[in-house]
Design brief:
This protein is mainly alpha-helical and about 90 residues long. The protein has a domain of about 60 residues: Helix Hairpins (Orthogonal Bundle), CATH 1.10.287.310. Helix 2 packs antiparallel against helix 3. The longest helix has 24 residues. The chain is elongated and about 45 Å long.
Length: about 90
């Protein structure tokens, strides 16, 4: 993964509940805000991290939209089994 991404690939996001996705989204948006602030004040060391966090946010929104449209089923509580809809692609 890119700089700043912490195990936020699509497969691992699909295994999380809606509440966990919303919490991860909130944290990513907060991180993006802080990085933008650092960039404005000249304190940002890694500009690649901005891109990585924006992609993480987009990835979270994509998984949430897939669930909204019924493309991928929601896995509630069980993390040991994979959803069959997610494996078909």
């Amino acid at each position: 993964m890119a700089i700043g991404s912490k195990n936020l690939d699509a497969a691992s996001l699909r295994e999380r509940s809606d509440a966990e996705l919303l919490e991860e989204l909130r944290e990513a948006k907060e991180t993006l805000f802080n990085l933008r602030f650092q960039g404005a004040t000249g304190q940002l060391e890694s500009h690649g991290r901005l891109k990585a966090v924006r992609r993480d946010i987009a990835r979270i929104y994509t998984v949430m939209r897939e669930r909204e449209l019924g493309i991928v089923s929601v896995v509630e509580g069980s993390t040991d089994g994979k959803s069959s809809a997610g494996d078909a692609s």
